[in-house]
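[#protein-structures] MJ: dropping Copper-binding protein here for a structure pass
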Amino acid sequence: MAISTRTTRTTRTALRTTAVAFSAALVLAACSSGGGGDKASESASSGASKAGSGTRVTVTETEYALKLSRSSFTPGTYTFVTDNAGKITHALSIDGPGVEDAKTKNLQGGQEATLTVTLKKGTYDLYCPITGHKQLGMNKEIQVG
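AK: finished. structure tokens for Copper-binding protein:
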């Protein structure tokens, strides 16, 4: 009887350990994939197009500046490839004619994301939507003509 009881306890302990490890893995996966209610920052609203379908523009973000790979824009579809070359969290948001609050997810240092939008003739504001970053210089105005 003693061996049977020990085997049952060992099995229960192994099952509990497995269940705890599995639960921890689920929590870590949810945290690392941007879970936790950050879905609003990942979605682009009006003016967004199919990812990767436009003229590529690299946006390099650092503390506290935006550098674009081009300075001349004509109406059309653009894919902004945002590269966080900084050490802290950044993102990219675009507002202008037909584009309102189109933005990438928050990016840790070394991460990148794409944002595809269709730009019409007019003025657009590209900026980091992280609180205070726009005011610190992470803001570019572009003219589409």
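MJ: nice. Residues 10 and 48 are 56 Å apart (CA to CA).
AK: one more thing. Residues 18-46 have pLDDT under 50 and may be disordered.
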